[in-house]
Amino acid sequence: MIINGEGHILGRLASIISKKLLEGEEIIVLNAEKIMLTGNKEWAYAKYKQRVDRASISNPRDMGPKYPRMPEEIFRRTVRGMLPFKKSKGKDAFRGLKAFVGVPKEFKDVELNNVPQAQFSDVKKGIELGEISKLLGAKF
Predict the structure, then answer these.
(1) pTM for this one?
(2) Quick one: which of 128, 98, 132 has its CA closest to 34?
């Protein structure tokens, strides 16, 4: 299944996709930078900035845990948190997820699906993952 991430809410889309991954489906998400987070821009940035900074605070030598800055990797990490990743069924399910910024050449002519349960209605009250990634220092 190929999903267009534009205009979807991050948490709702991730929960629906994680259920489908556990059922054995292969899922590709395009336009990951246009997935929306609801709420205040400052709150969202502070939340993700704190996660990125946590890597060097907890153990300066080890530099872990690692949290992503790129929008497709933030999305994958969100889905991973909804899977039983430490078990083999969760790892196998997570391997079935691919996410991309924009639309790659091989998916130009493919029909893209939307998830109506995860659609975002009020664009003014949200922030895109691409904006958060740029604030975190990602270059894409």
Answers:
(1) 0.89
(2) 128
